[in-house]
Amino acid sequence: MNTHEHEAPANKDDQGDANEAPIRSMFMPQEQKDAGSGAHQHSADDGHDHDHGGHASGAAPSAWKEHWDLLTALAILVVLLVLEYGFKYELPKWPSLAVNTIAYLLAGWKVLRLAFRKAIRGDFFNEFVLMSVATLGAFVIGEYTEGVAVMVFYTIGEWFQDAAVRRAKASIKALLDIRPESVTVLRNGASEEVHPSAVTPGELIQVKPGEKVALDGELASESASFNTAALTGESKPDTKYKGEAVLAGMVNLNTVAEVKVSALFKDSKLSRILEMVQDATARKSQTQLFISRFAKVYTPIVFALAFLLVAVPALFVENYEFYTWFYRALVFLVISCPCALVVSIPLGYFGGIGLASRNGILFKGGNFLDVMTKVDTVVMDKTGTLTKGVFRVQQVVPVGLEANELVLITAALERNSTHPVGRAVVEYAGKSASGPRVEAVEEIAGHGLKGRVDGKDVLAGNLKLMKKFAVPYPEEVAQVTDTIVVTAVNGTYAGYITIADEIKEDAADAVRNMHSLGIKTVMLSGDKQSVVDVVSAKIGIDEAYGDLLPDGKVAKVQALKEQGRHIAFVGDGVNDAPVVALADAGIAMGGLGSDATIETADVVIQNDQPSKIVSAIRIGKITRRIVWQNIILAMAVKVIVLILGAGGVATLWEAVIADVGVALLAILNAVRIQKMNV
Length: 678
Fold this sequence. Notes:
Layout: H1 30-33, H2 61-66, H3 68-86, H4 93-120, H5 127-140, H6 144-176, E1 183-187, E2 190-194, E3 204-207, E4 217-219, E5 223-227, H7 229-232, E6 238-241, E7 245-246, E8 251-252, E9 257-261, H8 269-280, H9 286-311, H10 313-316, H11 322-335, H12 339-358, E10 361-363, H13 366-374, E11 377-381, E12 392-398, H14 403-414, H15 420-429, E13 438-444, E14 448-453, E15 456-461, H16 463-468, E16 483-489, E17 492-500, H17 507-516, E18 520-524, H18 529-539, E19 543-545, H19 550-562, E20 567-571, H20 577-582, E21 585-589, H21 595-600, E22 603-605, H22 611-646, H23 652-671
Parallel strand pairs: 11-18, 11-20, 18-19, 20-21, 21-22
Antiparallel strand pairs: 1-2, 1-3, 3-9, 4-7, 4-9, 5-6, 5-8, 10-22, 12-17, 13-14, 14-15, 15-16, 16-17
């Protein structure tokens, strides 16, 4: 598992607030739903009591009904304003107080309740207390209508903010949660429709053209074409053949296909991916954590400044009027509400996670979006990352035995290896590889395998293996530029088999685009230096190192870190786990094929395209740019209106309009991330 610090919300100190959060993650585990950090986070951890019934949009009919009290208060406010400014009629003092109090309580009773709950726990410095003090203060000095207006517009702003966050999370959920509700399973010679969770591994399911595959499995039909866009972001059809893996979420394109199920519904790759993205929305970025810490300091300072704004002028201002300065302090409190910051920032990161998911890239948290913006060096494994990892035997060069015998002995031993090179030899040997009796197999990391095949001591691996066991070999073998598997039998060199891999189509473009972003590229491989040099020359890698054992890769990455480099390591996330842990960001290629990859990496690229590395970096930069745009916008507007309010220029009306307005502008800026192209 990666050693990067994964920030997550801390538990609330009062479970009584567990049902007060309006912006609950609609798919977050319950223990995370009840979590919180900071005095007034608007993400999945605050204490608002605006339950929108789970709707992604505040425009849903039930949401309107749920806000009948707020809408009634708004209607009363509009009537009072029309009477005052349209007909120049003001209600007498006591009837006005009664009507405005009713409207105020309808709009703000939830805010007042939360302010009271937090206050009795000693938490006075939060936005609920802030808004309660400001609006009740307006009533104290007789500004009833303005007090109602502040609470009404503040609560409407909260409603819109909650709806925007819900919509952002719903779009991520809709993007990924594409699991069918039913599946056709073949049982006892007949087909029946059942929920996917009722199907067990080993059963056959039938997928008609246009249907989504409901469960992971292997194709039982001869062939079928699938659209994998929902999983990989690629719309290009992918033809599968009998025995090849088919994953939940793929769409059958052309013919009825039968799939032999290999995993339970809850254990499918798609379910794992969905779970990972759900968890990602709860893992905070450093910017979010900073704003949370900032809010804890900011709000007490605001209260102190508001108090000083009332008290200090009494010492220096002639004809001091308490009403005037108290009103200015109320304006100060209203505009200081940090809603725009604490809503738009997590919303921006939700948008970045959603944009990445739409492009087949899974970030394990907003913190890794930040990490990707700092990357200046991308270190890549060769096999499976820059090359396809689909090896084919090219040449068999035996010494002292027949070619078939060399292949048979080597393949028998390599059956115990998961390395692509070993699998290529086994595939070349065919069924005959399972004939010999193999025992005492031992894998030597970075070298190869040793064991006994039909009673003979056999070594199969690279030249480092031969050197380790002092097996002499012809000098010309070291000059072979292709990948080779060298075999020794009973301590005697027996020949070699050449293996060829193929560079991925977009590898060169990916490296070129990284260079355009000012990113240094490095390739690390356990393969021969001659092979590594050929591949690096073809795709333009800056530095390439071969003949590396796992600890050699760690040493290279450590050396880069000591130079002050910010490193993303791209590999399979399993064999290179130590390097992944050492890098600032671990990126797994082809994560759909490996549960271990999903567990290990910080970022998972769902297909095998190196070009997605560049997309991940760009998405990180886009997200960070928009988040900082919102921070600057919110702070600039607040500072200006705070100054105007302190100087008596801005009124409560202008304060609440500026507060809600800047929050909505920041939200609109944040949600546009998901519609961008990378």
